[in-house]
Amino acid sequence: MTQVPSFDQLMVPLFTALRELGGSASIAEIDDKVGELLELPEEVLELPHNPEKSNQSEFQYRLAWARTYLKQYGLIDNSRRGVWVIAPSKRKVTEFDPQDVIRDFRGAMVGRADKGLLITTGTFTRDAIREATRDGAPPLDLIDGDQLADMLKELNLGIQTEVVEQVSVDQEWFRTL
After folding, report:
1. Are strands 116-119 and 140-143 parallel, antiparallel or unpaired?
2. Cβ proximity of 17 and 37 under 8 Å
3. What is the mean pLDDT of residues 142-163?
4. DSSP string, 18-57
C-alpha cells in the first residue's frame, strides 16, 4: 500500500490490533500494531498530517478518527487517557462492517435531523459512498479532504492563499547562444 488508508479502512485493523494486544493498548501500541498488520512501509506511516501545527502523522490522525467512530459505535472505549480497550460487552465480536457505523449514524439521525453530514480529511471508500447515497434512506452528505480544502479556500476560512512564482530555465534558449 502506497498511501494512508482512510479512517473507515482502518476500523477493522484497529479492532484486530486491540484484540491481538490482549484487548487493551496504548495509542502508540495500537499505531505500531495496525501498521504491522497492514504491512505499511515507513514512508507511508511517517507522512506528516499538518507539519505546521503538530508532529502527528497522517496515519496517526486517521487512526484517531477510526478510534472515535469505533467508540461512538460502542466497540471500544478509552478507560483512561491514552489507553483504549475493547468494550466488555463486545469482547466476543470477531468482525464488523465499517458501513454499519455509517448506518448507525444515519439511524441516530431519525427523528432528529432530515439530513446528515460526515466530514473527513481523507477519502471515503466506495462502500461508504454507496451507503451514504442509498435510495430510500435519509440522505448523508460526504465531504472528503479535497472538498473540505476547496470549501475552506472558497470561503476564506482558516487559510491563507499565497501566489508563488515559479521560474525555470529554458535550456534550449541557452544552447542557441
Report:
1. parallel
2. yes
3. 86
4. HHHTTSEEEHHHHHHHHHHHTT--HHHHT-BS-TTT-S-B
The answer to whether the predicted template modeling score (pTM) of the entire model surpasses 0.70 is: no
- Domains, the chain, in order of start with CATH, read 7-90 (1.10.10), 98-155 (no CATH)
Question: Is-contact 140 116, C-beta < 8 A?
Answer: yes
CB atoms within 10 A of CB 38: 18
Residues in the chain: 177
Residue 9 CB partners (closer than 8 Å, separation 6+): 98, 125
Cell 521560474, located at residue: 167
Report DSSP state, residue 68: H
What would the grid cell of residue 62 be?
A: 486517521
Cα–Cα distance measured from residue 11 to residue 76, given in angstroms and rounded to the nearest whole number: 11
